[in-house]
Specification:
Helices cover 47% and strands 20% of the residues. By secondary structure, the protein is α+β, with helices and mostly antiparallel strands. It folds into two domains: 127 residues, Trna Endonuclease, Chain: A, domain 1; 62 residues. Helix 4 packs antiparallel against helix 5. It starts with a helix and ends with a strand.
Amino acid sequence: MQSPNNGLGRYGEEVAARRLAHDGLHILERNWRCAEGELDIVALDGDTLAICEVKTRSEHAFQQPTEGIDRTKAERLRRLAERWLAERWPTHFELLAERVTPRPHADGSAVPPGPSSQPDRQEVSAPTAEPAIEGRAGASSPTSGETAAGSAPKKAARKRVARKPEAKSIAAAGGVTALATVPAPPPPGGVRIDLVAVINRLKGAAQVEHVRGAV
């Protein structure tokens, strides 16, 4: 059987998350746990990482939600914030970066076909047509002008085809370099600890107060 306080706490966190999203914050994680404790909500407020501690009280509770963070609690939140940054921020930073600048796949599936795709098909088909013309019985020999005019594009095409694997290998090597693990920079706006105070009223909607930089 769950305690009524646990139900009130979950309700408060849900209300707080909706309020933060309504205010324009981008929620990254909720109820992140580790051996040292739990963070209720981790969100981005612009370029600032907000560690949100949610405190929920009933309307007739003696203690106000804003009184729920003492010095010991504040120090624990700071330690949890540092650990979250070390363990979870690199993953979220990579996801956010991909939304801004998608990375091309190594096989090229994510890159739309460009103007160079049509010449590639022509370069491959040009050498295959040459033996069929030369080996046909009774076929007339091309004139010297036709030979001079037709051989240069074919030779150039064969040279371009020969260089194509090298270009792919360079692209593949560049892709590996681009995907190398790079330490994620800290949030540009820094990290702050917020308090989201939720008062569950007997009648009407809950009262929510978001205190930025409460600690």
